[in-house]
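Usage

Read records sequentially. Each one opens with the input sequence:
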Amino acid sequence: MTVFLKNIKYPLTWLVSVVVVVLSTVPVPEVPELEDVPFFDKWVHFVMYASLSVAIWMDRRLICRRVMRPLLWVFLFVYPSVMGGLMELVQAYLTTCRSGDWVDFYADMFGALLGLIVCASVDRWVVRKHFDRT
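and closes with the structure output:
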């Protein structure tokens, strides 16, 4: 088992992806305190998919120490967005405890976009200036 875990190429991306899938398919308990927060569910989607984009960037840039190519920057947005769409379809058609929602999908996409912007900013201003000095 430890040999398998050592050979996982992008461990943080896998971990966050699995957490997002689990959180998207399990029943959500009623929390009365959070019912008063406007659009709480949309904020959760926004943060989950922004976190997924950041996890992809961290695995690729910080753990693997490789320079991000342009196609990988696109992947930072596309993978979380596609996964968000698929999770909404799973919620709508394959679960009885959840329902798919277009607005949730838009929140997923905006979260992925925010993650991309944050990662690009950090990569540009911090990582390249401080760690890539040659």
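Summary fields computed downstream for this record:
- The chain has a mean pLDDT of 86.
- Residues 102-130 form the longest helix (29 residues).
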